[in-house]
């Protein structure tokens, strides 16, 4: 077994109830898929196969979780919604499936990881172009430099300006925002330019 000392340290710091469970699951993983690699991802033990996450374990104050990376495909709709992972809140060894079943699931997850590409989420439809308030559109039409800068920005940046101005409830506020926007645009600045590079 190729043990990662960071996982040893993670288990040593875990709540007393979780230590034997974490050790047991770790042994079952290595028994089922001997070539698995250990690592730490998002501060939790992770088990990788060919560089891809196979499953992860995480320990909390009163429970732990076992999360197969492609668990929805593996267990279908049987996943628990009580906690991350497919087995809900694990507080004792009895909350885990039997060794044979757990190893079967681990091998099935490994086969799935090796053979099938991960499902991709459908791309969201692009948002429509930002609708400009009439006063802002008129101000842009009267200032070529500001308009050129505005039109050179990506759609999300243009939408930020358009929404910020449209959300103003009072005319005075809208006029102030348009003046600020025009000054920023003449300098080629995005609406939130102060926070760039932070």
TrEMBL record:
It holds the Pfam family DUF1801. Residues 19-109 form the YdhG-like domain. Gene3D superfamilies: 3.90.1150.200. Signal peptide: none annotated. It comes from the Bacteria. InterPro entries: YdhG-like. This is YdhG-like domain-containing protein.
């Amino acid at each position: 077994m190729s043990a990662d000392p960071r996982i040893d340290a993670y288990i040593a710091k875990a709540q007393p109830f979780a230590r034997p469970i974490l050790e047991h699951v770790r042994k079952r993983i290595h028994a089922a898929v001997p070539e698995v690699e250990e690592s730490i991802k998002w501060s939790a033990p992770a088990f990788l196969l060919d560089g891809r996450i196979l499953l992860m374990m995480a320990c909390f104050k009163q429970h732990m979780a076992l999360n197969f990376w492609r668990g929805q495909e593996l267990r279908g709709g049987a996943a628990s919604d009580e906690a991350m992972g497919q087995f809900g809140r694990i507080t004792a060894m009895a909350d885990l499936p039997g060794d044979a079943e757990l190893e079967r699931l681990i091998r099935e997850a490994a086969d799935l990881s090796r053979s099938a590409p991960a499902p991709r989420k459908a791309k969201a439809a692009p948002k429509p172009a930002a609708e400009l308030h009439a006063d802002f559109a008129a101000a842009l039409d009267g200032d070529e430099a500001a308009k050129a800068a505005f039109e050179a920005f990506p759609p999300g940046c243009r939408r930020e300006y358009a929404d910020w101005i449209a959300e103003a409830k009072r005319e005075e506020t809208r006029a102030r925002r348009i003046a600020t926007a025009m000054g920023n645009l003449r300098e080629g600045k995005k609406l939130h330019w102060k926070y760039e590079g932070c």
